[in-house]
Design brief:
Number of strands: 0
Largest sheet: none
Strand content: under 5%
Radius of gyration: 13 Å
Helix content: over 70%
Order of helices and strands: HHHH
Structural class: mainly alpha
Number of domains: 1
């Protein structure tokens, strides 16, 4: 079970990282964007590390408060959940 969870987390974080990059590219090209709710949902379902790294790597959504402060809170909540579930 832990191995499946590990593969899931790796996959969702990679996906989230690239989705943030795609949204940044779309923003630069003036195209239809990925909704902020979708970006945050990816973080909530396990992609918070990918979202945070994507924000930093692509310099994307760094000034939006819900991303600047929300993503670290989501990550901390996920870390706390993992700690509680493994005890």
């Amino acid at each position: 079970m832990n191995e499946i969870l590990l593969y899931y987390l790796i996959g969702i974080n990679m996906l989230t990282f690239f989705v943030y990059g795609i949204d940044k590219w779309k923003a630069q090209k003036g195209r239809w964007r990925i909704p902020e709710a979708s970006l945050l949902t990816l973080a909530v379902i396990g992609g918070s590390i990918g979202a945070w790294v994507g924000m930093k790597a692509w310099h994307h959504k760094t000034m939006h408060k819900k991303f600047k402060y929300g993503l670290p809170l989501i990550l901390l909540a996920q870390i706390a959940l993992i700690i509680l579930c493994t005890c």
